[in-house]
Amino acid sequence: MEQLLQVENLKTYFKLIDGTVKAVDGVSFSVNHGEALGIAGETGSGKSVTVKSIMRNMPSYAEITADKLTLEGIDLLKLSNKELQDIWGKKIAMIFQNPTSFINPLFTIEKQMTDVICFHEKIKKAEAVKIARNMLVLVGMPDPDAVLKSYPFQLSGGMIQRIMIALSLSCNPSLLIADEPTTALDVTIQAQIIKLLGDIKTHTSGLILITHNLAIITEICDKVAIMYAGKMMEWGGVNQVMKEPAHPYTQGLLAAIPRLSNESKKLEFIPGNIPSTVDPPKGCRFSPRCPYAKPVCTQEEPPMVEIAPSHFVACHCAGEGGCR
Amino acid sequence: MEGQNTTQELTVQQAPAQTKSKNTVWRQLRKNKLSFFGLLVIVFFLLLAVFGPWIAPYPEDAGSNTKIEERLQSPSTEHWFGTDDMGRDIFSRVVIGTRVSLLVGVVAIFITMCIGIPLGAIAGYYGGKLDECVMRITDVFLAFPYLILAMAIAVILKPGLYSAMVAISLTWWPYYTRLVRGQALSLRNQSFVHAAKMMGAKNSHIIFRHILPNCIGPIIVNASLDMGLIILATASLGFIGVGAQPPMAEWGLMISTGREFFMTAPWMTFFPGLAIFLTVLGFNLLGDGLRDILDPQSRPR
C-alpha cells in the first residue's frame, strides 16, 4: 500500500536550563492512504508533541530531528515557514481539544470558513460560501444556512466542533489530525463526533486520532500506537493490539478500563507515575512500573521487534511469548 | 446525509447577531444615566461644531474683528456671554471655537491611533527583539510628562494649531501602543489564533482579522476618554501660547487672553472654561459608560 505519512526516528527535544526534555525520543510509524491511526497513552507521554512536531508547529526552542518525515513525498523538515503556510490547512489539517476557544468570537461562521477556503483554493467568495455550506451538510449540521450566519457564541460546543471538522476538511487535506477532539464535550456529543470522524474517514486520505480513550480507537481506527514517556511501546493493527496486547503497558491500559461486568473487583490501575523525560529511567522506560520487570529491563533499552506481521512491540519479554 | 439522524436534537438559535449586539450597547448606554448625559453633551457640542457659524449671532467676531466701543461688556441679552477686550462677542467665539477643539481632538486621536495601534499589534504579536525595541521607544516617550513633551514639539514645529495637533499625536501614541501590545500579547496565545495559524493563515491576516478586532473594545473606551484629555491638552497648549495663535477663536487661547482681565471681566475666562469643562466631562462620562459595556470582562458572551 502507498504510504501517506512516514515518520522514522522522530525526536523532539526541548533544551532547557536544567536539562534536555526528550519529549519525543525516537518514534517511528507510518500512515497509509485511507488509514486511521490512533495514538494513545497517558498524559505527558508525548502524543501531542508528536503530532505537533509532524506539523512543525513547535516553538523555536524545540529541536525536531528525524531520519525521515515525509508527507506524500514532501520532506516536512525542509520546508520554510512560508511553505508551511501552504501545507497547513491544505495538506494537513488539525482539530483541537476545546472547540469553543479555537474559533474567533467576533466573526460569523461563514466569514471564518470562507476566509480559509478563499486563501487556499484561490477562488471567489460566492463559491467559497457554497463549499462551506456543502461541508456543513457533510458534517451533518442541521440548517447549514442559519449556522453560516451565526456567531460562535450562538452555537453549542458540539456544533462548533462539527464546524471545526468541516473547516478542516474544506480544503481536502491529505492528513487530518484530531488532537483529543472529544475531551471537552459531553458524552452524547462525544458519540456523535466519533461517529462523524468515522464517517468522514473516507473524505481524507489519512487520519491521526489522539485520545486517552482506547474504546474510541477500537471504534474508528485501523492502527494503534501506544506511547509512553516519549517512546513508542507498541504499534500495530487495532484488532491485534487490542485482542493480544503484548506490552505490559498496553495490558495495563486495557485493564484500567472500567467494566460493568466485574462489580466485585476494584478498578485496575498502573502504579506509579509517568517518569520525567529530562532524566528518564535507564533501560526500558516503563521498567520502574512494570510488574514483569527483569534485571535486563533496567539495563538495556528494548528494541522494536515484530512479534506478528505488522505488530511491533518494544519489550524484552515480547519475543518469548510475552509477559503473562 | 451521514450523521443526520444523530443531530436532530441540535437546534440553531436564529438571531441577527449584529443588530442584537448593537442594540445591547445602545440599551445599556440608555440605562446608564450619567453616560447617556455625557453622550447628549457630546452630541450637543457636535451640533455646535457643525452649525456653529449659523448659530453664532456675530460670526464675523471669530477673527480679528474689532469693536472698541463694545469692549469688555458684561453678559447681556445682546451679548449672552459678554464681550472681550476687542469688543468681540464671546458667545459667538465659544460656539465657533467648538469646531476647532473637536477637530483637533478627532484628528489628534486619528493620528495617534494610526501610529500607536499597528505598532502595538506588531510588537505584541511578533514579540522578541522587535517588541523590546518598540517598547523601549515608548518608554522614552512616556518618560516625559505629556504636556511638556507636547510643548517642546510644538515649539520646535513653529507654534500653531496644526503643530499642536502633531505634537499631541506624537506624545500620545505610546499609550495606544502599550494598550494594544498588551492585548496582542494575550491574544496571540489564544487558541483561535493558533488554529488560524494551523489553517495556514498569514501573519498579516492574523493581525488584522484576529488580533485587532479583538482589541477594539479597549481602544474605543480609551479613545473616548482621551478625546476629553486631548481637548484639554489643546486648550492648555493654546493657553501657554504654543497652540492656536491669535486671533483664532480657540478656547484655551481665549482663557489666556482673558487672564489679564480676570478681575474686571471674569466672563472672558469663565465661558470658554465652561465649554472645555463640559466637553471633557461629556467625553469622560461616555468613556466610563463604554468601558462598563465594552470591557471584555463584563461583555456578555
Number of domains of chain A: 2
C-alpha Rg of chain A, in Å? 21 Å
Number of domains of chain B: 1
What is the total tally of β strands of chain A?
A: 13
Estimate the global geometry of chain A from the Cα principal axes: globular
Please identify the top-level CATH class of chain B: Mainly Alpha
Helix fraction of chain A, binned, reads 25-40%
CATH superfamily of the largest domain in chain A: P-loop containing nucleotide triphosphate hydrolases
Beta-strand proportion of chain B: under 5%
- Helical run tally of chain A: 10
The most extensive interface between chains reads: A-B, 52 and 33 residues
Number of helices, counting only DSSP H or I runs of 4 residues or more of chain B: 10
String of helices and strands of chain A: EEEHEEEHEHHHHEHEHEEHHEE
| Cα distance spanning the termini of chain A | 34 Å
What is the SS-derived class of chain A?
alpha/beta
Mean pLDDT of chain A: 84
N-to-C SSE string of chain B, H for helix and E for strand: HHHHHHHHHH
How does the overall form of chain B come out from the CA principal axes? elongated
Q: What is the fold's blueprint, element by element?
A:
The complex is a heterodimer of chains A (324) and B (301).
Chain A: E1 3-16, E2 19-32, E3 35-40, H1 47-55, E4 62-65, E5 68-71, E6 74-75, H2 81-87, E7 92-95, H3 109-121, H4 125-138, H5 144-148, H6 157-169, E8 175-179, H7 187-200, E9 206-211, H8 214-220, E10 223-228, E11 231-237, H9 238-243, H10 248-255, E12 304-308, E13 311-314
Helix pairs in contact in A: 3-4, 4-6, 6-7
Chain B: H1 17-31, H2 33-55, H3 90-126, H4 128-142, H5 146-156, H6 161-187, H7 191-198, H8 203-240, H9 251-258, H10 267-294
Helix pairs in contact in B: 2-3, 2-10, 3-4, 3-6, 3-8, 3-10, 4-6, 5-6, 6-8, 7-8, 8-9, 8-10, 9-10
